Amino acid sequence: MTYTVLALIAVPVALAVDLLVVRTRVVLTLQWWIAYAITLVGQLAVNGWLTGRRIVTYDGSAILGSNHERFVGDWRICYAPIEDIGFGFALVLLTIVSWRWWSSRGAHLPAND
């Protein structure tokens, strides 16, 4: 399975968990989109640094575009493949959804003694 296919699966799964499974409906709030925009800026900065310096590389057959790093173009943004945006979206959304869902059920971390 390619990185592209996995990214195309991750986004709808995260949305389904939010909207249909646990029904936290995080993505329907302005608060989410503001927080995600801030997160996306940080993600692009870190991805750009890691990929632009070739600390992280991608197999050209597993992503859209090629394995030639470009700042923008060839299905890349800030050197990173466009699929990274989908994965970042799904990761952050599932984290916030989990946090809200567990918090609404009174789940607390054990106190340090």
UniProtKB/TrEMBL annotation:
<keyword id="KW-1133">Transmembrane helix</keyword>
<keyword id="KW-0472">Membrane</keyword>
<keyword id="KW-0812">Transmembrane</keyword>
<feature type="transmembrane region" description="Helical">
    <location>
        <begin position="85"/>
        <end position="102"/>
    </location>
</feature>
<feature type="transmembrane region" description="Helical">
    <location>
        <begin position="32"/>
        <end position="50"/>
    </location>
</feature>
<protein>
    <submittedName>
        <fullName>Lycopene cyclase domain-containing protein</fullName>
    </submittedName>
</protein>
